[in-house]
Design goal:
Length: about 100
């Protein structure tokens, strides 16, 4: 079975979490999507990048979530979420997926 890239899961967690919250109008559902994807990624990052790498990648993932909120006030919600997802995915690829 091919390995799923964490970059794709991290980006999907951010985009999917926002989409779930927006379209269902249930913020907790969006948070659950974000948390499940983040937990899966953190486990994989720990295996491929070690504890320090996993902590750094998790921080980038969570900063993307938090940073997309103020960014959305400047550029709009979807562009902010897509930017956060792209940054998180690129970082995950560079620090974890490329090594695996």
């Amino acid at each position: 079975m091919p390995k799923i890239p964490t970059a794709a899961v991290a980006a999907s967690g951010l985009v999917g979490g926002y989409a779930a919250a927006r379209f269902t109008r249930r913020r907790e559902l969006g948070g659950a999507v974000l948390a499940v994807a983040g937990a899966w990624c953190a486990r994989e990052w720990s295996r491929t990048a070690g504890p320090k790498g996993a902590a750094a990648l998790t921080a980038v993932y969570l900063a993307g979530f938090g940073g997309s909120h103020p960014l959305a006030k400047k550029v709009g919600a979807w562009p902010a979420v897509l930017t956060a997802a792209a940054v998180s995915a690129a970082t995950a690829y560079a620090l974890s997926d490329r090594r695996a």
